[in-house]
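Render Golgi apparatus membrane protein TVP38 in 3D.
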Amino acid sequence: MIGRNGGEILIIGLVIAFSIFSNQIVNALHPVIHWMKNLRAGWLIPIAIFIIISFPPLFGHEILAILCGLVWGLGIGIAIVTAGVLLGEIANFFTFKYSCKTRSAKLEKKSIFYAALSQVVREGGIKIALIVRYSAVPSHFATVVFATCGMNFLTFIIATVLSLPQILVQTFIGVSLAGSSDTKDNKLMHILNIIVVIALVIITYVAMRYVKKRLREAMPAVIHARRKARQFEMTESSSVV
């Protein structure tokens, strides 16, 4: 652990830093996305990129969503972002669910924290999934946790669909940027971006406090279950002797 509130501070700091440099990144990549649009079936390229960057430690969903809105407009832009995000998250979920199944089972037996986290994720259902997804925790990192902790796929996909507005806001920002050339409109978009960042910071702080609270509540039951399992093993071994 980084410290009592280290996780929140680190993620909030990354969100603020990302928002500061996002305009420069968007401007740098704008010509590349225009080139993709002019290709036949060029819209498949950003979908493929969404799928690739859905695997940690890669990132960039927000920037790509802005670029899709900026170049393809609202209708096609939203369709591209929705398809890319959903396909990428599903691929990420099943990859980690099956490739890390044995390792996560061993980790759950060894680590009290991971066992408590797994219990919170499994029992929390859509509520815990949505709370985490609407925070600034990168969605594809959250997907890895959900997959390895044993979240039901139906719960996962419903939460993913319900959390799409978070990324689609970025598409709308891109559409607005495409239609704004005067300083007044650009200032309005800058204010909107700041509002989105502030909302993310607040939601992230509340989400992490909630998850920590649920973890503290789950710990006693996990510890008790481990003690009973240990006592049972000792009884079994002594009876064999």
